[in-house]
C-alpha cells in the first residue's frame, strides 16, 4: 500500500528511511539532513558512493549521534546528475523495493527531493517502480526459502513538505502498476490454470467491480456469428474457445477506442508443431489479452473520462488434436474473407482478424489498438528492448510512441507499405496467413490490415517485450506486464 505521509524523517522510527540524492559536480551528494549528510560525506570520501543513477548504500544509524533519525535502517539512493525523468524515478523505486525486500523490510518512508509540486510526474514514476519492483509470483511455492527476499512490502510512504498533487500522483502510479502486476500474474499461471474460461471469469468480475458491461461469446455464438478464425484455431483443443467483450462508457458523444488482445492461452504451434525447447514459454502467448483486460481495469479504477472503450479478447488454445486445423486448409474469417492456412503456427492473426472485423462492424470505433505476442520476427528485428508498432495512421502512432516513452515501454514503428501484401497472395483463397520469412512482423500486420478498413488502427507486436524485457530494477524475470501502463497512459493523455 502506497500513501503520502505527514510523518517526517525526524520522527519516523520504522524499518527503512530512504533519501534520494542527486550526483554532485563537486563534493558529496546531500539529502538535507545534517547527520545523514555527514555519513554520506564519509562514504563519498572513500569513493564508494557518488550518487550515480542506480547507486545506493544502506547503513544502520547510530542512535546516539546527535540529530540522527530514529529509523532502524537508512538507505541513500542515487538519481544521477542528468535531467530527471519518470524513468529515473521508476528505476529508483524498483531498486528501493528490491533492497527493502532483501532486508525483509515491512514498511518504509521515502523522503522526496526538491520541490515536488514541480515534478509530480516523477512521484508517479517512483510509485510505479515501488509496486512493480516489489512483484513476486510465489503461488505455487510450497516451501519457504530462508535465503529468499521477504514478502511484498505492506506499507510504503512518501514524504515531502511540498505536498501539492503528491497524493494523486501516488494513487495513479499505484493503479497502473498494480494492473500491470495483475497481467504478470495471468501470464505466470500455468496454461492448465489460465484457460479461455479464466479470461471470461476475469472480465465478468471486472464488470461487476467497476460498473462495466461484459459479454462472453461461447463456441455456439461464435459459430452462429461466423468467427471462423477463432473456431479454426480451436479445433485441436478439448477446451472450447471464448471471446470476452468489456465495455466502458463515459458519455455518448465521446470517441470510442477499441482494444483487442490476443488470448492464446497455450500455443503448441498446432500441426506445424514448435520445437520442444522453450515451448513452456508459450503459456505467455496470452499476454496481449492480459494487457488489454488489465488496462481496462486501470482505466475504470481511475475513472478516466476522455474515451469510451471496448475491449475484446479472443481466447483459445492452439493444440495438435485429431481435429486440428491442417496446413493447406482454407477457412472463412468473420465478414467472409477466405484464408489459406499455410502454417498453423501463424494462428494469432486468425484470432485477431476475427476480433478486429467483428469489433469494428459492431461498435464502429473511432480508432483501434491491438496487442499481441504475434511474431518471432519482431524479436529478430528489435530484440527484447522495443515493442513493434505498425499502423495506418500517423497521429495514432505519435500518441502511442509518446505514451510508451513516458512509461519506459518504448515502441519502434515499422513500415506498412502495400508491397508487403504481395507475399500473402494465394492461388486458392483471398490470401495466405503467412508469406516468406522476409519481413515477418510486417506481413503479419499486413494480414491484419485487411480486416480494419479505413478505421485508424495500430498494432503492437509484444513478442519480444512480453517476457525477457530489458533488464531493469522494476522488471522481473519472466512476464513484464508490458503495454498495460502504455494503454493506460494513452487514454489518460488523450486529446482529440
CATH superfamily of the largest domain: Zn peptidases
CATH class of the largest domain: Alpha Beta
Which second-level CATH architecture of the largest domain applies? 3-Layer(aba) Sandwich
Shape label: elongated
List keywords for this structure.
single chain, 496 residues, alpha/beta, Leucine Aminopeptidase, subunit E, domain 1, Aminopeptidase, 9-stranded mixed beta sheet, 6-stranded mixed beta sheet, 13 helices, 18 strands, elongated
Give a brief outline of the structure.
The protein is of the alpha/beta class and 496 residues long. The chain is built from 13 helices and 18 strands.
Report on the structure:
It is built from 13 helices and 18 strands. The two termini are 34 Å apart. The mean pLDDT is 95. It is elongated and about 85 Å long. Helix content is 33%, strand content 18%. Helix 4 (166-188) packs antiparallel against helix 8. It folds into 2 domains: 2-164, Leucine Aminopeptidase, subunit E, domain 1 (3-Layer(aba) Sandwich); 176-492, Aminopeptidase, CATH 3.40.630.10. With 496 residues, it is of the alpha/beta class. Strands 7, 8, 9, 10, 11, 14, 15, 16 and 18 form a 9-stranded mixed beta sheet that branches. Strands 1-6-5-2-4-3 form a 6-stranded mixed beta sheet, with helices on one face. A 3-stranded mixed beta sheet has the order 12-13-17.
Task: Note the topology.
Elements: E1 2-4, E2 16-21, H1 34-45, E3 56-59, E4 74-78, H2 86-102, E5 107-111, H3 120-133, E6 155-159, H4 166-188, H5 196-210, E7 213-217, H6 219-225, H7 228-234, E8 242-248, E9 256-261, E10 263-267, H8 287-301, E11 308-318, E12 330-332, E13 338-340, H9 348-363, E14 367-372, H10 377-382, E15 387-391, H11 394-407, E16 411-413, E17 431-432, H12 440-449, E18 457-461, H13 484-492
Parallel strand pairs: 1-6, 2-4, 2-5, 5-6, 9-11, 9-14, 10-11, 13-17, 14-18, 15-16
Antiparallel strand pairs: 3-4, 7-8, 8-11, 12-13, 15-18
